[in-house]
Structure prediction request, 204 residues.
Amino acid sequence: MEKVCRDWAKQAFGEGLVDAKYWDEFATNAQTAAAEVYKVKDFAAGEAKLKELLAQYAPKEIIAVGGEENPALHDIYERIGNDGTQIYTDKFDIYDHRDSADVGISTAEFCVAETGSLCVDNYSYEARVTSMLPFVNIVFVNANYIVKDVTVACQIIGKVFDKGYLGFVTGPSRTADIERVLSLGVHGPNKLLIIAVENVEGGR
Prediction:
């Protein structure tokens, strides 16, 4: 299965459609939907924030995707593994540890300010299970890739979509099926932690 788009910035983001000026609205709405949002200067700061979050949740196993497309993430994952943490990035290892992983680290294509959502291109099996099965989902996204609303998001998607697994994630998994009592984490992650990187060229 191919990604819906290999380069969103060049192929889908038209002039004026994506703008960092929508950050405050996105962050507010994402937090209202129970996501935790952290804006960092570069991937070095993103790595520090990631390690801080991992120390908080103390996972026994981590499954992670996005390193194949992003060298900065690849290096971060390697350093985490070298520190003694069990982190799996190979698709077969992810499959083997999909049920036992405590944390999944994934990526998003862009943010939607109106709803506080992330647009994710989960083209592969390993990307889907990484973002849906572990208790905690940590998502890296470019802090400059924010659209105003769902209408603009669909306009962007319409430029490149042919087939694939594209979706919007708004906060952690939630349901109110039973007596209208809101419960988190029933059908997916209990925690959604967003690390938004301002300078994506600032990785090591």
User: Anything to note?
Assistant: Helices lie at 8-11, 23-32, 43-57, 71-82, 91-96, 125-132, 150-160. Confidence is low (pLDDT under 50) at residues 181-185. The chain has one domain: 8-199.
